[in-house]
Specification:
The structure holds three protein chains of three kinds.
Chain A (H helix, E strand, L loop, with lengths): L1 H29 L6 H19 L3 H27 L3 H21 L16 E4 L2 E4 H23 L1 H11 L1 H6 L4 H23 L8 H17 L4 H21 L4 H16 L16
Antiparallel strand pairs in A: 1-2
Chain B lengths: L8 E12 L2 E12 L3 E5 L6 H8 L7 E6 L2 E2 L5 H7 L1 E3 L12 H9 L2 H6 L10 H12 L18 H14 L4 E5 L7 H16 L3 E5 L3 H7 L2 E6 L2 E6 L1 H6 L1 H6 L8
Parallel strand pairs in B: 3-8, 3-9, 6-7, 7-8
Antiparallel strand pairs in B: 1-2, 1-4, 4-5, 9-10
Chain C lengths: L7 E7 L1 H5 L9 H25 L3 H27 L6 H17 L5 H20 L7 H22 L17 H22 L3 H11 L1 H6 L4 H27 L10 H13 L6 H15 L6 H16 L3 H11 E7 L1
Antiparallel strand pairs in C: 1-2
Helix pairs in contact in C: 2-7, 3-7, 3-10, 3-11, 3-12, 4-5, 4-6, 4-10, 4-11, 5-10, 11-12, 11-13, 11-14
The chains are: A mainly alpha, B alpha/beta, C mainly alpha.
Chain lengths: 290, 260, 340
């Protein structure tokens, strides 16, 4: 039982990292709350499904194209919507949330509901970790979860674009004075964040079925992880994902699965009340309250 | 120049420190302000003057030390509680309500619990009267009553009027102690020379004042005691003449001697 | 400047009649009185006549009432967002709390609607204010996020602990005695909320609340507690929202977790932004547009939400002033292009 919790809690945490990292990245770099995050997550899943099943492309190509598509959607959302309301936080939230609704409810209207749509798993095999059986999709999830964090970290450290992103995150004005295009960088950030959401969808969806409701759930999970970890703090996001991942798995193991969401919602509310800058963030308190 | 020297301390600051991480913005500063005093606080930029004020008025919590008002410990109390006790401040970066007319800016402090309790303005606290009282106060501060100035949006007023509006907010609260954070800065010489008599008048009405200033010449016309800060520490304190001749103060202000 | 292109700028000038009717002299001529009163009279007349016109079609009567319900929720949102500076994404919280409170009062304690609605409004507003009290120091996006979570948490708690009727909710709640009671009760309440709040924001107490939005540091320096001021404002907003919820459940005789549904948080925002933020009347106008629209789209299921969301996004991004501010400008000012 102990190893069960250890392993599956770890998997749950890795899934949360995947779900939240894109949201955290976008907010961290350009201070843009992308509330369409969950919608992009679901939408990418459906694109992959449609390319694979309706168009009949090979699965690897469908995956690749759908991830590119999610990046494209991110760029579009930035240039059509976010750029015009940038700086007005509340408008950003409302506009991105509304666009997310358009995607999700549009899919629902188009008839995607219920448990009929599934994505194939990468492999059917099962491995044993500490004698706990884990299917290969979940192994992949763990590996990719951390690979992505490592990749983004390397990106920000060693590429020009990555350094521009990092510079923007620290001080937008100073970065602009050094010749970094604020719009382009923010668009890249939103695109990267959306692609991360897409990758997460393509790894996590095969474990269950494609449903529109996942979009709302993922958004709340992403917000929970980012708020508890400190909005915009990447290290905080990872730590918070573990705290929340394990506590979620514990509620499933010992209580009712119903409480999974309650845990997340309470975590958001409690964190914002007690320490709005998050438990692992390094942002100044003064920014969000006096 | 103030002539009240009853030596009744109303504000006592004892070894106050405020550290931001490793930076000692204010370090072990003590100061006693007596009733009727006009105390000037001088020092180069970054010497901790505004931080000190923020600690006194509750906008920041001091790391160490105490502040007491009328012998009552007020360290770390909430800003509105301290304002309610009669310590009122102006902001260096003026903070009017830009979307309201100038006189409505004063209706806010006139609606505060302190204004209702202490009252004393002609007309008192009833609704409708506050507008009149607000215009009265503005007139006292040099807003011409019959001009349109008191009724203009605060956002459209020039700096000189905004500074007066900051003072007006303090006056509306019937303060015992006004702390001015650089009221003279950013003003022209003629604007300053019209503000100086106003400060003297308020002091004459029995209001104790602490003034942070860079404009030493004007400050020394009104202040009866001066404290000099440098890097968060108190350099010296005393009569204006003593302070200005203190070698460390001269050193800190070297290069700006034309001010004296 | 030596460029050949002539530049133009749009100049706006107050109409003569607007300036004349600003002061007491407006009473000089009927034309000016009419100019001043027409918009108000039109609004009031529309709502007073609505039940009389719609009485042969009870279904559309209910739609008319839905306009009022949404208008109340939107007024509550507009007041909080644009007069206090607290953008709440959780309007459904007020609505649901009011609804459940009235349901319990009516079914468990047997209070008739005449009592259960006002009591639920007051108790509900008290509950909401207490629940939001710890969040009041939060600003901007942080307050928005936390309020978005409150109604979601309520549904999950009701589901998980199976309290307050669980997923089923309450049924068999008393309805109103007659069509016109139901209609005019709500319309009257909407007018009270609308004109009451409009008056309040211009009184000294309302001014203090607006000052908090403008500059809370100055309010603190004026010896006024910002948290207490915000709490008062939240209480007023939750009164409005809770009343809407309490009234609605008596209209339909049941309440369920759908009272905390997301639509109820999104629709008021859409109505406010479309109608014109910061006007309090705008939200009523927005509601009067959105509710009938949603009736026509009823057969299209979730396409309804897609249409709302698109319209909402369009307004947020391209026409953020909303209809009311646009119309006011056209009514009061002439525009022309001037060469510069």
């Amino acid at each position: 039982m102990f190893y069960d919790i250890l392993v599956y809690g770890f998997i749950q945490s890795a899934a949360l990292i995947l779900m939240a990292f894109g949201f955290s990245l976008v907010y961290g770099v350009s201070r843009l709350p992308n509330f369409a995050h969950g919608a992009i997550y679901v939408f990418t899943g459906f694109i992959a499904w449609a390319l694979f099943n309706t168009v009949g492309l090979p699965y690897w190509l469908s995956v690749l194209l759908s991830i590119l598509a999610s990046g494209g959607i991110g760029v579009l959302i930035y240039y059509v919507i976010l750029r015009r309301v940038r700086g007005m936080e509340v408008s950003e939230v409302i506009a991105t949330y509304a666009i997310g609704l358009v995607f999700l409810e549009g899919l629902r209207y188009a008839g995607f509901r219920g448990g009929t749509y599934t994505l194939p798993v990468a492999s059917d095999g099962v491995s044993f970790i500490f004698d706990v059986p884990v299917d290969h999709q979940r192994v992949l999830l763990m590996i990719l979860g951390f690979a992505m964090v490592a990749l983004i970290w390397l990106l920000t450290k060693y590429t020009r674009m990555g350094r521009a992103l990092k510079g923007m995150a620290q001080d937008e004005r100073a970065a602009m004075m050094l010749g970094i295009d604020s719009d382009a960088t923010a668009a890249v950030a939103v695109a990267l964040g959306s692609m991360l959401a897409g990758v997460a969808a393509l790894i996590i969806f095969p474990l269950g079925s494609l449903v529109v409701e996942e979009g709302y759930k993922v958004l709340i999970y992403a917000i929970a992880v980012c708020v508890v970890g400190g909005l915009g703090s990447w290290a905080g996001t990872v730590i918070a994902a573990f705290v929340l991942g394990y506590s979620q798995y514990m509620t499933v193991a010992y209580g009712k699965p119903h409480f999974q969401m309650v845990v997340m919602l309470l975590a958001i509310i409690a964190t914002l009340i007690v320490r709005p800058s998050g438990f692992f963030g390094k942002q100044k308190q003064l920014e969000e309250r006096v | 120049m103030s002539t009240h020297h009853t030596k009744e301390p109303i504000l006592e600051i004892r070894s106050l420190s405020k550290h931001f991480g490793g930076v000692k913005a204010v370090d072990d500063v003590s100061l006693t302000v007596n009733r009727g005093d006009v105390v000037g606080i001088i020092g180069p930029n970054g010497s901790g003057k505004t931080t000190l004020i923020n600690c006194i008025t509750g906008f920041l919590k001091p790391t160490k030390g105490t502040v007491s008002f009328h012998g009552k410990d007020i360290t770390g109390k909430k800003p509105h509680k301290i304002a309610d006790m009669g310590i009122n401040r102006t902001f260096q970066i003026m903070r009017p309500y830009f979307s309201m007319p100038a006189y409505k800016n004063l209706v806010i402090p006139l609606s505060s619990p302190r204004a209702k309790r202490v009252g004393g303005w002609r007309g008192g606290g009833k609704h409708g009267d506050r507008d009149t009282v607000a215009v009265d106060i503005l007139e006292e501060l040099g807003f011409e009553r019959d001009s349109r100035v008191p009724y203009k949006m605060a956002g459209t007023l020039p700096t000189g009027y905004l500074k007066r509006l900051e003072l007006g907010r303090c006056l509306a609260l019937r303060p015992e102690l006004i702390i001015c954070d650089e009221v003279f800065s950013g003003l022209s010489a003629s604007e300053i020379s019209s503000l100086v008599p106003l400060i003297e008048k308020l002091n004459g009405q029995g209001i104790t004042m602490i003034m942070i200033e860079h404009r030493l010449a004007e400050l020394f016309r009104v202040a009866n005691r001066v404290m000099a800060l440098s890097y968060g520490e108190k350099v010296t304190e005393g009569e204006p003449d003593e302070v200005i001749n203190h070698p460390k103060v001269r050193e800190a202000y070297l290069g700006s001697e034309e001010d004296f | 400047m030596t460029t050949e292109t002539t530049q133009k700028r749009r100049e706006r000038i107050d109409r003569g009649i607007k300036v004349r009717s600003e002061s007491l002299y407006a009473l000089n001529s009927f034309e000016e009185i009419a100019y001043l009163l027409t918009p108000r009279v039109l609004l009031i007349a529309a709502f007073v006549l609505m039940p009389l016109i719609l009485s042969p079609w009870p279904y559309w009567g209910r739609v008319g009432l839905s306009v009022c319900i949404l208008a109340l929720l939107s007024i509550s949102f507009d007041f909080l967002a644009n007069y206090v500076g607290l953008v709440s994404l959780g309007g459904a919280f007020f609505y649901g709390v009011g609804g459940y409170m009235a349901a319990v009062l009516n079914t468990e304690l047997g209070l008739p609607p005449v009592l259960s609605i006002p009591v639920a409004t007051l108790l509900g507003a008290g509950f909401c204010t207490l629940a939001l009290l710890p969040c009041l120091p939060l600003r901007g996006i942080y307050f928005a996020i936390v309020t978005l979570m409150y109604p979601l948490l309520m549904t999950r708690i009701i589901e998980a602990f199976d309290i307050l009727g669980g997923t089923e909710g309450f049924r068999g709640i008393d309805g109103f005695s007659g069509f016109f009671t139901e209609q005019y009760g709500l319309i009257l309440a909407m007018f009270i909320a609308l004109f009451g709040l409009r008056r309040f924001v211009n009184m000294d107490g309302g001014l203090v609340i607006r000052a908090v939005k403008d500059n809370d540091q100055s309010v603190r320096a004026s010896g006024i507690s910002v948290t207490r001021t915000k709490a008062k404002a939240v209480f007023l907003a939750s009164l409005t929202g809770c009343f809407a919820g309490a009234y609605y459940i008596h209209m339909y005789s049941n309440v369920g977790i759908s009272s905390f549904a997301l639509d109820l948080s999104i629709m008021p925002i859409a109505a406010t932004i479309i109608g014109g933020a910061g006007t309090l009347v705008g939200p009523v106008l927005g509601a009067a547009i959105l509710v009938p629209l949603s009736e026509f789209l009823r057969d299209f299921g979730s396409l309804r939400i897609v249409v709302y969301a698109l319209v909402l996004t369009g307004f947020v991004v391209f026409r953020s002033e909303g209809l009311m501010n646009y119309m006011t400008r056209k009514y009061q000012q002439v525009e022309r292009w001037v060469k510069i």
